[in-house]
Amino acid sequence: MNPHKIRIGVIGVGYLGRFHAQKYAAMDDVELAGVADVDQKRAEAVAKECGTVAFTNYRELLKQVDAVSIVVPTVYHHKVALSCLELGIDILLEKPMTVTLEEADALNCLAEEKQLILQVGHLERFNPAVLAVQPLLHNPLFIEAHRLSVFKNRGTDVDVILDLMIHDIDIILSMVNSPIQSIHTVGAPVITQLTDIANARIVFENGCTANITVSRISLENVRKMRIFQPGKYLAVDFGKKEVMAVRLKQGGTGFPLPDISRHGFQEQDVLELELREFIENVRLRRKATVSGREGRRALEIALSVISQIEENQGRFAHLLSAEGNFGFVNEP
C-alpha cells in the first residue's frame, strides 16, 4: 500500500455506490482498497470493474481503509456509520444522513469527540450552478424550487421528501441566514404507499419565503430554482449546471432594459467534485462543506415536513382508501 495515498472503501455498491467506486478508482492520489455489498455477485462485479477487492462483510473492509463512502439504504446508515466512527474511520454518508434525529445526533457527537470527518452526501451542493450562484446572492426575498422526476423503482424505500425535497431544503438553508418561523405543507401518495408529490412553504424570521415543490411521478425531469432579491432575479438550472442573472439597466430610450448574464461550469462532474472534496477533507483534516451538523439540520426540516403532511393526510384518508390499492392501473 502506498502510504501517500488515502485508502478508501465503498460500502454499498448498488446504483450510486458503483459510481463512487468508479470515481475513486480513477483518482491518482487514492487507493480504492475495496468495496463491500451484501450481494456477493454485485460486489465482485464492481470490484472487478474497478480493479479492487470485494467484501460481503463491510467490517472486513474497515481493516483496510482510512475513509469510506457509505451508500447503503438509509435504514442502515446509523449502524454502518457508527461502526466506522468507532474504529476511527472518516466517512462520507449519503443523504438523508439517518432515519431519526437521535441517530444523527449520536453520529455527530462521536465524530466530534474523535475529531473525525463526517460529510453528508448532499450532492447538489457541488452542482456548478449552486457554486456559481453563491457570489450572486444578496438577501433573497423569495425562493421557488421545482424538482420533478419521472418515476423510478429505485429510491421508493423513502418518501419524496427524503428522496428529492431534502436537496432543496439543504440548498435553501445554506442560502438564507435566518431561523425558520413556520412551515406549511401538503402532499399525497399516488403510486407508492409513501408520499410521491409534495409542496412545502417555508417562512424565515427575516421575511424570506421559500416555496418547494417535488414530485417523482412527472412526465419529465425538472431541477430548477428561482431566487428573487433586491435588484436581481436569479434562475438556477441544476440540469444544465447554469445560472441566469437578470437585472434592469437604464436604456437609451429612458426605459429600463433587462441585463442578462450567465454563469456556470457545465463541464464539471458533480459527484467527482464531492468525492474529491471528501478526499481533501480527510487529507487536510478540514470541515466538510456539508458537515454532519448541516446534514442533521436538513433532516430536521425534512422530518417536520413529513410529520405535517402525515397529519394533513388524515383529512382525506377516505380519498386514499377509495381506490383500494396503489400502483399503475392496468388498462383493459
Automatic annotation (TrEMBL):
Q: Where are the transmembrane segments?
A: none
- Tell me the ranges covered by the Gfo/Idh/MocA-like oxidoreductase N-terminal domain, including all copies: 6-122
What molecular functions are annotated in GO for this chain? nucleotide binding
One Pfam family, short name: GFO_IDH_MocA_C3
The name under which this protein is listed is Dehydrogenase
What Gene3D superfamilies is this protein classified in? Dihydrodipicolinate Reductase, domain 2 (3.30.360.10), NAD(P)-binding Rossmann-like Domain (3.40.50.720)
List residues of the GFO/IDH/MocA-like oxidoreductase domain. Answer: 158-225
- SUPFAM superfamilies this protein is in? Glyceraldehyde-3-phosphate dehydrogenase-like, C-terminal domain, NAD(P)-binding Rossmann-fold domains
Q: Which organism is it from?
A: Candidatus Electronema aureum
Which PANTHER family does this entry report, sorted A to Z? BILIVERDIN REDUCTASE A
